[in-house]
Every structure is written in C-alpha cells, then in structure tokens.
Amino acid sequence: MKLGPSPVLEIANLLVWLALLVLQATDGLADGFATVYLPISLTLLLLRQLASKRPAFDLSIVFLASCLFFFSIGIILWPFSSLSPADFASLVTEQFTWQQLDDAAIWIGLSIAITMATMMILRRRVRHNSQPITAAFLRLDDPRTKGLYRLGVFCILISLPAVAVELVDQLRFIQSVGYLALFSEGIAVSASSKAFLYVFNLGFGLTLAFARRRMEFLLPAALFLAVATLDSLKGARGALLVPLLFVAWFYVSRFNVKVRLPAVVMSLAFVVAVFAVLTFQRDSSFGQGSMLQFAVDALASQGRSLQITVLYQQVADAVARFGDYTVFSNLLIPITAVLHPEIRDAAQSMDQVIYSNNLKHILTYVLNPDYYFAGGGTGGVYTIELIEAGGVLYVLLSMVLGWFLVWMPRAMRKPWVRFLSIYFFSTVFYLPRGEFFVNSLIVGKALFLYMVVVGMYRIFRSNKRPLPVLQSDGASGSDARA
C-alpha cells in the first residue's frame, strides 16, 4: 500500500493555531496577528493541495478556496478596497477592534486546521489510486446504465419547458416587488411546478450517475446551466456561480481532464466577471467609482464571514434564547416540519425564529428584527455553529468534515453518490456562508426518488429479459424446442 503525502504541514499549522489560542487567552498576542495569519494559513494549505497528487472528485480545493474567499477576501483586498475589515455596515453598523477579529479568526482557523490535519492523516492511510477514472471504475459497464441515462435525459426534456416558464414567472414577480421579497414573502409555487422541478433535478442527477462519455454529460449540463442562468436573474449570485463551478469540477474529475494554469486564470477571470455583473444587477449603488474599484469592492464585501463571527460572539447569549445546538438544524428539518407545519412554506417570520433552530434566522433577528422581517439576512457560518455547539462537538465535527473530504472521492464510485454529488458539492462550497450539514429533507427526497426510479427500472428490465433457450448435445435452438 502506497502511503499518501505526509501531514507535517497540516499538523504544524494546527499547532500554530493552538499556540495563538493560548496567547490570546493570556493577552500575549499582538493585535491583528491572528487576523492576518488566517489568509496566510489558508493560502499555504491551498497551495499544498494544489501541488500534491489528489484523487479525482477531491473537494479539499473547493473547501479551502471557499474558506479563503468568504473568510479572508476582505483582508486580502484591504490595501486596494475602500472597505475595511474592521468596519461592518449592513444589518448593523459596527466597528470592530483587532482583538475581536483575532478571537474570531482563531476559532475559525483552528477548526479548519483540525479538519485538514484529520483529512491528511486519513488520506495517508487510504490506498492511493493513481489510475484514471474509467467506466468500469464507476461501475458503468452494466448494460442497464444506458437505459437509466436515457431516462434522465427524457426527464430533463419533458420538464424543461415547465421549469423555464415557472422561473420566468418568478423573475417577473421579483422585478415587480424586489429581490428581498424572496425571503420576506416567499414565492408561491404550484404543485405541478414543484413536480416538474423534481423531475428536472431527477433527470440531471441520473445523467450525473450514468453518463459514460463527455458529450453525454455536457449536453444535460448545458441545459442545467441554462436553467441556472435563468434562476440567477432573480438576484441570487450563487444560483449560477455554484452550478458553473460544480459542472467544471465534475467534468474535470470524471473525464480525467488536465487543467493548465492559463485555463485556471481565464476561468477565475470569467467567474469574477460574472460575479461583478450579478452584483451590479442586484445593487447598482456599488458602481459609484471606476469599474475596477467596483469589482474590488464587490469582491471584498463578500468576505463577511469573519465579521459575522464577531457579531455572533457579541450576542451569543441572546441567540441561545432562541436556539441550541443549531448545527443539527438541517438534519432535524423533517422532524421540525412535522412538529411545526406552520414553518414549511413560511418565509422569514417569527415562527422560523422560534421553531426552526436555524442560526441564519436567529442571528439576523437578534441583530436587527426589522431587517430580518424585510427579507435581509446575515447568512450562516458553519464555524459559528461549531462554536455554539461547545468544545467537544467543535472538535469532533471538525474531524468529521476531514473524514468526509476523504470519503467523498472514494464514494463517487457509487451511482447514488454521483446522483447526490451536486448537493454535497454545494454544501462544502457554502460552508463558510451556510450550515454544516446538508438539508436532510431535500437530500432525503432526492435519494428516495432515485431509489424508487432505479428500483422500478431494474424490475421492469428483469421482467423484459428473454427466457433462456434450452439446448442439448450441440442441437440448435429450434431443434431443441422441436
């Protein structure tokens, strides 16, 4: 068994963060040191992963790049931006001290260090597979997979017109009432439209699970991105950027595409351009200066997760009055929806604050109730959920995330994991701006639908198999029957 790369860098980084935690507790840490070290440590970890040989479908790059952006982009761009990481002006107006930012940075950096050290230690013990991804490796040599792929394409095609019409209707509604109405009022979706959305997502998931060739993947992916583009026009930037990143990640991993530096640079430039356009579409007040300054400020404004962590630490006692162990809120959604059906289709409301146990709802309401009921929000931060859960769960769940990053590439051999891979990818990407766990209700419905469709298809195929023809002593089939 060939061992993976040594986890020396990750363990050293973990020890540095533990030392910073001790120095902060004893008032021996220079102001701003931990805040500045956070992007440095994330950059080193990211470069380490980029330089090492990683398995296909690896998510560690996605995780680290997302953390670097959402936690630290404001610090990185500080010399060029008109926004300061010490100033926060959104749902509340605050000016933080460097000591407050350091305290939040330490808990963020320590959790990421535990995750990466766990991942590298486990990866070192896992059998290293350097072979390219093939149809046989992904268990696509079964003849039944072609029929399931065709079923996926059929589901996409029959549902696409209805999905497009529904998104256009939603876009018109948002244009008439404003983007925040998505959260303050919600959008009523008919049962038939929901059904077509389920069918569309089912179809795309089946093509992810059973596509054998590049074109078999790219054609459904193009339709998926067309729908994502239409959805993003409502104002949600992630509605397009995350699908774009997912399709690129899946395509490169599944079909053994070698990515070169110029392609990466061009892709990043394209993503930044798309992000800037979507930001300007949602809030044109950002474009008060030059185009370059607008782009820098738009990017810097997204690195708020460190500041939101400071805000949470200031109001942690008030948050505790409405929620406890909020890290498990997504796992408990099916139970919560049964016990409190009033929150199933509710937008941002007092029922959500009281019953959902969701940090995004609770923290925004505690900080600014008027802003919350108007549709605004802080977004989530997974490290805040870990901090709120207490020391033991903080460490254990940070380690669980490291285990997941090792499990995912190996598990992608299984069709059901590839079917759900877009949910796993989105969850990992949004960790610095979302919850720790996947939405169990959404993923549970998708997995149930997959099991039913695949199970029924296999039963149908088994009933359609021709009966074997008996032959004896070299006689032909017709002679044997005679």
Entry summary:
This protein has 23 helices and two strands. With 482 residues, the chain is mainly α. Strands 1-2 form a two-stranded antiparallel sheet.
Task: Note the main attributes of this structure.
482 residues; mainly alpha; two-stranded antiparallel ribbon; 2 strands; 67% helix
Strand order of the largest sheet: 1-2
- Unreliable spans are 469-482
Sheet/helix structural class? mainly alpha
Portion in strands: under 5%
Q: Total number of helical segments?
A: 23
The separation of the N and C termini measures 58 Å
Q: Whole-number average pLDDT?
A: 85
Secondary-structure element pattern, one letter each: HHHEEHHHHHHHHHHHHHHHHHHHH
User: Rg, please?
Assistant: 25 Å
Number of strands: 2
Task: Please characterize this protein's 3D structure.
- With 482 residues, the chain is an all-alpha fold.
- Helix content is 67%, strand content 1%.
- The protein is built from 23 helices and two strands.
- A two-stranded antiparallel ribbon has the order 1-2.
